[in-house]
Design brief:
The complex is a heterodimer. Chain A is an alpha/beta fold. Chain A is built from 15 helices and 13 strands. In chain A, the strands form 2 sheets. Chain A has an 11-stranded mixed β-sheet, sandwiched between helices. In chain A, helix 5 runs parallel beside helix 6 and helix 10 packs across helix 14. The longest helix of chain A has 21 residues. By secondary structure, chain B is an all-alpha fold. Chain B is built from 3 helices and no strands. In chain B, helix 1 crosses helix 2. Classes of the chains: A alpha/beta, B mainly alpha. Chains A and B meet through helix 10, helix 11, helix 12 and helix 13 of A and helix 1 and helix 2 of B.
């Protein structure tokens, strides 16, 4: 098996131990991208000279010599971010040293490519991008998830073993779920955000998409600038929220996630209890309002009118729609945020984790990104924030863990949410779940990468 | 889905709003806006109608931490 097919930590260990040559690993990664990327369109740009320069100057950090990809949301010293879009909404972005770039560089990692993303970060499917859609390695006719579509597809296709994404309304967790990966949305403010195009954000965080929880611990620690200690969770108190978060899901998703919660309970000799939080009925709209309007400060009617058909029709229409949102709705969304934060804080006095499916249904088709749920058929973009938005609205950490496969062979994922600052507990719980399921879901490779 | 009369009212709202902003929109853009509004308009309306008077503001909101009022309780 090629070292490229091994997890991030094993690549780092092999190089640190002298068993692998980092230059050869970089060449192998570039060759793998050239060979396999056309099927998934996960990586939109490589820059071998800059990657080799990074390697030549790399310090002997925890990711020394390991190739990683970074979402098209972060500037690099030699390239400005483009947000998966042909035209910018605000001022022209410039190249520079973003926080994630510096964290990777200082850890000795090598940025090997820019990963695709949903246009402007404004979608949960990845089916719209100026580069063309990224494709799901488990079925290239299906969405990889978004907005971190490229990081998800790149890691699942084994182009790299780790990638940096960003999550403002679930944008790390949806691609992790659709692509069978582990994706961590850190506590707000814990991971580096320097150089992001929405510096005033109250929702977006950088975070890792990896093959499993241990790799998320490693790459997450690099983005946090701290070592994330691990421990064996015991006596875990798991809260299961009633209502549509579970019930309005594809029955296969519900069954696999229910079984995973029980496996986690048994693994940690824990408990499962039903527990609700206030404001839940408004989370979907409130998280979208807060998350998707933070960058409107730089948008003017003239800038929207100036968008040509190089920008997608959906983007041009959504931007117009956003300009019409009543101010009272934003104020109400802020109240909902306060209500949800208080209610979650109370909930976390009684449970350690909250659990529900990351997405309500497996990856939809690229040419028809709708999902069939017990309550009807909906665009995936409409339903996904219902499952993922609360963590961004409240600032709490969340992790998506693969826990099954649908009858179509598509990954199914469970989301775990913890209290502020308890990111390590989420990783511990994800590792416990991996062990309880014999790592069958995290070690599986899609046919394209088999 | 909104009732026909409500849908028509919302269509007028969108057209008038864009006109006020001097922001033109083609038929295709208006069709997408209408489809989006048929999904989110009801949620937006329910949010506007929500009684949230009892939710006191969070002093010094810090999204990286639990709400301060609870911590100080």
């Amino acid at each position: 098996m090629s070292l490229l097919d091994r997890p991030l930590r094993e690549q780092a260990e092999a190089i640190a131990g002298g068993d692998a040559d980092p230059g050869e690993l970089l060449d192998a990664a570039l060759a793998r991208i050239e060979e396999r990327n056309p099927a998934v369109n996960a990586i939109v740009e490589t820059f071998p000279e800059e990657s080799r320069r990074m390697l030549a100057e790399a310090p002997r950090g925890p990711l020394f010599g390991v190739p990683v990809a970074i979402k098209d949301e972060w500037p690099l010293p030699w390239r400005a971010e483009r947000l998966g879009a042909a035209q910018h909404l605000g001022p022209e972005p410039s190249a520079g040293e973003s926080g994630p770039y510096m964290a990777l560089r200082d850890a000795g990692a090598v940025v090997v490519g820019i990963a695709n993303m949903h246009e402007y970060g404004a979608g949960s499917t990845g089916h719209v991008s100026a580069y063309g859609p990224a494709r799901n390695p488990w079925d290239t006719e299906r969405c990889p998830g978004g907005s971190s579509s490229g990081p998800g597809a790149a890691v699942a296709a084994r182009l790299v073993s780790g990638a940096v994404g960003a999550d403002g309304v679930g944008s790390i967790r949806y691609p992790a779920a659709y692509c069978g990966l582990t994706g961590l949305k850190p506590t707000f403010g814990r991971s580096t955000m320097l150089g992001h195009h929405v510096p005033q954000t109250t929702t977006i965080v950088s975070g890792p998409l990896c093959r499993d929880a241990a790799d998320c611990r490693l790459l997450g620690g690099v983005l946090f600038g701290e070592v994330l200690a691990g421990s064996e969770p015991s006596g875990l108190r798991i809260g299961v929220v009633p209502g549509e978060l579970w019930e309005d899901c594809d029955p296969q998703v519900n069954a696999a996630c229910t079984a995973a919660v029980e496996a986690l309970r048994q693994a940690g000799d824990g408990t499962v209890a039903e527990l609700d939080f206030e404001g839940r009925e408004h989370v979907l709209i409130a998280s979208i309002l807060v998350g998707q309007t933070e960058e409107l400060g730089e948008v003017t009617p003239a800038r929207i009118a100036g968008l040509t058909d190089e920008a997608s029709l959906v983007a041009r229409a959504l931007l117009r729609y956003r300009m019409l949102i009543p101010a009272a709705a934003m104020s109400k969304a802020s109240r909902v945020r306060t209500l949800v934060r208080r209610s979650l804080a109370e909930a976390f006095e009684h449970v350690d984790l909250l659990a529900w499916p990351t997405v309500a249904a497996p990856a939809p088709l690229l040419d028809n990104p709708t999902v069939e749920l017990p309550s009807g058929a909906y665009p995936a973009d409409y339903v996904n924030p219902r499952q993922g938005g609360v963590a961004n609205l409240a600032g709490v950490p969340a992790i998506s863990v693969p826990v099954g496969r649908s009858s179509d062979g598509l990954p199914i994922a469970l989301q775990l949410i913890a209290a502020w600052g308890r990111d390590e507990l989420l990783i511990d719980a994800a590792e416990a779940l991996e062990r309880a399921t014999d790592r069958v879901w995290v070690d599986a490779a899609p046919p394209l990468a088999g | 889905m909104p009732e026909p009369a409500e849908a028509e009212a919302r269509r007028r709202f969108v057209s008038a709003g864009l006109e006020v902003l001097e922001l033109g929109a083609g038929e295709a853009e208006l069709a997408v806006i209408e489809a989006v509004d048929s999904l989110y308009g009801g949620l937006l309306q329910r949010l506007l109608e929500a009684e949230l008077d009892g939710v006191e503001p969070e002093p010094g909101e810090d999204l990286s931490r639990a709400p301060r009022t609870l911590e100080l309780r």
